[in-house]
Amino acid sequence: MELIEIKSLKVTFPTEAGPVRAVDCVDLQLGVREKLGLIGETGSGKSVLTHAILRLLQPDALCEGEILYQGRNLLGLAPTEMRRLRGRELALIPQNRALNPLQTVGKQLLETLRQAGYSKKEAAAKMPELLRSVGAIDPDSWTKAYPHECSGGMCERIVIALSLAFSPSLLLADEPTKGLDSLNRARIITLLGAVTRNQALLFITHDLEAAAMLCTRLALMYAGELVELGDKDTVFENPLHPYTRGLLFALPARGMQPILGRSPPLTALPDGCRFHSRCPGAMARCRRQHPPLFDTGNRHFCRCWLYV
Amino acid sequence: MVLEIGNRYILRRFFSGLLAFLLSITLTFFLLRSLPGDYMTDLLLEIGRYAPPELVASFKHEVGLDLPLPKQYLLYLTGILKGNWGHSFEYGLPVFSLIREKLYWTLVLLLPSTLLSAGLGIGLGACSGWKNGSKTDAFLLHSLVFVGAVPSYCWGFAGLFIFSFRLGLLPFGGYVSLPSTEPAGLFRHALLPVLTLTLCSVPGIYYLMRNSMLDTLGEDYILAARARGFSESRILFQHALPNSVLPVLTMTSLHCAHMLAGSVFIETVFAWPGLGLLTFSALEAHDLPLLQGIFLVDTLLTIIANLTADLLYPLIDPRIRSRIRGE
Amino acid sequence: MNLKSFKFRILKENSLQPVRSWFCLLFILGLFLPACILPAGASVIPGDSSGDTCVSDEELASSILSHMEYSYLGKERPHLSAEELSLSAHNFRHIPYGRVVIPVSSEKDFITPNIWYKMGVPTGSLIYEGLVTRNRDGNYDSWLAESWSSSEDAKVWTFRLKEAKWQDGETVNSEDVKFTHDYLKDKKLKLAFVLNSVERVECPDAQTAVFYLENPDPTFPDRLSHSPGIAIFPKHIWENVENPASYDEYASGDTHFIGSGPFRYKAAERGQYFLLEASEAYHGDSPYVKEVALKLIPDASSRLFALQSGEIDVLPEITPVEAEKLKGKDNIKVYNIPDATGYEIAFNCEQFPANDPLFRQALSHAVNRENAANMLGNAEPTETVFLLPDLAHDFVNPDYIGKYDYDLGKARDLFKVSDNFSVDSDGKVRYKNGDQIHLKIPLGGKAHMNRADEKLLNVIKMDWEEKLGFDVELEAVPEDIYLEQIGESPIFIDGMPGTMHDDLEDLNNFYRSPAGSNYYHYDSPEYNRLMEELKNTADRDKRKEIGYRMQAVLAEDVPTIPVCSTGTLVAYRTDRFTGWENVLPLQAGILDKKVFLNIKPVSSQAS
């Protein structure tokens, strides 16, 4: 059985300019201990997707479809039930190393451990262990520090430690490597790989290489839609969607050729394929008709008219 | 804790405060002397006479206004240092004791109303920001926009009209009743002005708090706290509130210092002889020593409020604390 | 699309517009509905069982008799109210009763004996007295002085004192008079300028004080009377005060507020109230009111509230607009004290074109005094050649009343006669060379209070610009350079607030001494000669005759155009005290001993 199964999820926000659909008909499955990389540009809807899973979107956001977690639809749960799942079962590593600036690392860890059900004593005992597991050599000096006194890599480790306090079965990591230098990025990715040996991981990033290092499957999002989904090796060796190809060619190892143009704003999506204005091989059909997600076999899916 | 902040920081704040003080009193000294009109001319106009020039001259000589400006300035500075702030023309009393007395009455209004309005403003602002977009938020926002849009003077009047004039529940201004009339304590006398002052300060603090709360709620650590399954009240009181209240506290302390001389309207409506009313009448009468004293006290209090905020902030906010240590 | 921009939307204005409007409505309704439904508190007069605000003999008898009846029958009697007893005592024995509360607008209106305040000490103070006082009939009333006389040359003035006591029981004697003079001059108090002409004061005996003047002064009693006048201080108190200018009289309380007047200090709170009570030691008739309270209410609208609620009993110096608001209200009456402030259009007789007498005469015909007075509200046009005729009585020369009526035709005729001007066919006046007449009038000084000068000049300006073709420019001028400005301006506006001295003394304003000048830069040899004669004449009839001749000169030369005079409007509560209108104070405002000696509590009228 899949650990989590997302079925035709649509997320709509009411705005001044009318409703905006940030996530459109996304279907995803994630097995136990499976590691999925969710890749897309800023605004492609990947963060919204994770927040939708945790039901952390603003109250007036409209979520349609189903998110089945161990067979239960998360979207239908009562708020208190949902709250019990958060942290314990579904943990989030948020963007921007989110730590309360007014509290010491120790205090925040303690609070989280207490929330995870440990007594005060246990929590105090667990804290150094937890910090060591994310690579702290001197946990005591870490606990006394304030967030602004820590380096970026250190903060990221603390945030990972915070989300591991519960030992959740699914970890949603929202761009954990954003803004880190390459050395720290590699370390964090290694760390993530190590600590999630027994957990499923939804790794959100715009960094293909990082995703490749960590994940077994990759999903690519563009303008709120999944455009390609497949095993890591398949996608890397045989990228189907022109967007995926573009991203791969933009990698330093493959020539660093950026994709021209910008992704369309969600408030003014074009007719037809949402990528057609940037697509080098756009056809007449692409301008008129919106492509569905085609199964190209070998658990590989792609949203492009090339694969009818 | 203070030692931890570092003596150098305190010393530097202190000296910058002193510099601001000197600059400000110098400025007021020369500004006041460039005001048109003089005390004697005004006084005599009130009884319908033009002042005989020799009377004006002898008065100016008596109080030292005929000396060259630099000399007056020097005398003024040495006077301040010696604690001699001069005598008011109008009241014939030492400026310092006069201001002390009026300041007391101003503070009787200002302190409770600051505490009340800070409490109310922060509470309502936090509630409004926390429940952003809800009916409560809309209700609070609109009622406080309305409250803030009506001048303090009108609120004072509405209060007087209803509670004193129509209902006869509260006395008609002042801080004491005439002897052997209905015995109203200071509390009943101060109630209306304090409430009016509070009513007028709440919207400002409320807006600030609401915005600050909205900003804080947009922060990722709030999202992270939610994702960890913390209860809503825990998120509000442990994370959102402490972070969003910081800028509001500083603003409130400065606002308080500003209000010292700024509540003229309230003081007029409620016949409350505080510093605002004193400033007003001193300006009207060209009572130079008194004006100088008032501005001196205003400057001092503003600088002290700033200094206190500067010194308190590192105690509350660890980020500033380490920035200072870094210096 | 960035998530953050979705997260928190600030509420949109338009979506909640209807909410706001009903909300405001509710707010306002909530505020004022309860206030409108509930009645205002009414004051109850003890003993007044019929509620007609008067306590009749019958009412009084029944209220007292009922108590007596109970005591005869040996029954348990209801509590005997001290209020009722004091009222009955007042009604039968004229023991002062009741407290009259008057608002003051600023702290300096409280009585301060060491620094003179608004209207001068002796008239405006209820505690302190002078020697004599002027009345509105042009005569003098005695205060501390029983009688007074001057030498033939009006250089030596002898005052005989009444048998009076200071409020602490000490006897008032002539040493106090001498002390007051010496103290003012020794301590260089501002008030001392009133006594500039006094060389010395001698005390031949305890009841006689003699003032020796350096120059003859037939109007010396007037000088002592008011505006500011000189009050007599108790020597035994003030000789111990080293530095009166910086002396805090509140700190020493009742011991230092010792005067000889009808009211004595009872209590005070700086910046709040000043409470006086009737003095038993007063040498004249004792007042009908027991207490007078001055209460600080700085805000004008609050004062109106206070009067309507009964918090205060009288409200002096209200504006015509406020008077209109109060008219018709229950238990409130408004009256006018005439001739408080006079307004004139004055010329600088040395500046072109005002140096042309024909120009001045012509403009005298071109001022619509009726309209100007209407503009100010409670004002009367002035038809004489100098200001305040109501106080001047028979000193006004009847030949010149209404000489310069409003008649633009006459004005044009006078312009035609002049060498400096010409009048074209549509009646527009030009300079001979064809230039337009440009007049710049500075605004400021005494006439500027309540912006009366602006209101008046706007009426006059319209006439002069439309009908005579002038170009009139009004310019507000800061107080300190105002005097300089009017020295350079051919035409300006002036006011004479409230306090007037000896009527003919006002003619001194046009006198040019050999050394000095006057505000009008007016210099007529004949007038100057007459003024000098007037100054050395003590006899009333002779003075009057000289005054007539001086007015004849003024009527010809027109150094000024008197326009109108305003009164002081006073509102009072009819259910509290009566008699306000019986005695008119000498000056603006009602703080006048005579007024407060005259008013009675309403309930005492019946007895």
Short summary:
Chain A is an alpha/beta fold and 308 residues long. Chain A has helices at 46-54, 79-85, 105-115, 120-133, 139-144, 152-164, 182-195, 208-214, 232-237, 242-250, 284-288, and strands spanning 2-13, 20-31, 35-39, 62-69, 72-73, 90-93, 170-174, 200-205, 217-222, 225-231, 294-295, 301-302.
Strand and helix map with partners:
The complex is a heterotrimer of chains A (308), B (327) and C (607).
Chain A: E1 2-13, E2 20-31, E3 35-39, H1 46-54, E4 62-69, E5 72-73, H2 79-85, E6 90-93, H3 105-115, H4 120-133, H5 139-144, H6 152-164, E7 170-174, H7 182-195, E8 200-205, H8 208-214, E9 217-222, E10 225-231, H9 232-237, H10 242-250, H11 284-288, E11 294-295, E12 301-302
Parallel strand pairs in A: 3-8, 3-9, 6-7, 7-8
Antiparallel strand pairs in A: 1-2, 1-4, 4-5, 9-10, 10-12, 11-12
Helix pairs in contact in A: 3-4, 3-6, 6-7
Chain B: H1 2-5, H2 7-33, H3 39-46, H4 53-63, H5 69-81, H6 95-130, H7 135-149, H8 152-166, H9 186-217, H10 220-227, H11 232-259, H12 264-269, H13 275-285, H14 288-316, H15 318-326
Helix pairs in contact in B: 2-14, 6-7, 6-9, 6-11, 7-9, 8-9, 9-11, 10-11, 11-14, 13-14, 14-15
Chain C: H1 3-7, H2 17-37, H3 57-72, H4 82-93, E1 99-104, H5 121-124, E2 132-134, E3 140-142, E4 145-150, E5 156-161, H6 174-186, E6 198-205, E7 208-213, H7 220-225, H8 235-238, H9 249-252, E8 263-269, E9 273-278, E10 291-296, H10 300-309, E11 314-318, H11 320-326, E12 332-347, H12 357-365, H13 369-376, E13 379-381, H14 389-392, H15 408-417, E14 421-423, E15 429-431, E16 438-443, H16 452-466, E17 471-476, H17 479-488, E18 491-497, H18 525-535, H19 540-557, E19 560-573, E20 577-578, H20 593-598, E21 600-601
Parallel strand pairs in C: 1-10, 16-17
Antiparallel strand pairs in C: 2-3, 4-5, 5-7, 6-7, 8-9, 9-10, 11-19, 12-18, 12-19, 13-19, 14-15, 20-21
Helix pairs in contact in C: 12-15, 13-16, 18-19
